[in-house]
Amino acid sequence: MKHYFLSVVLLGMLAGCNNSQKQQESSTMSDSTSTAAADSVSGLPARSRFQKDVEGKKTDLFVLTNAKGMKVAITNYGGRIVSLLVPDKTGKMLDVTLGHSSIDDYLATESFFGTLVGRYGNRIAKGQFTLDGKTYKLPVNNGPNSLHGGKKGFNARVWDATPVGNNVLKLQYVSQDGEEGYPGTLTANVTYTLTDDNAIKIDYQATTDKNTVVNLTNHSYFNLNGEGSGSVADHRVQIRADRYTPVDATLIPTGELAPVDGTPFDLRKPVAIGERQDADHIQIKNGGGFDHNFVLNGGQTTEPRVIATVTSPQTGITMDVLTTEPGVQFYGGNFLNGKVMGKSGKAYEKRSAFCLETQHFPDSPNQPNFPSTVLKPGETYKTTTEYRFSVQ
Question: How far apart are the first and last CA of the chain?
Answer without folding.
Answer: 41
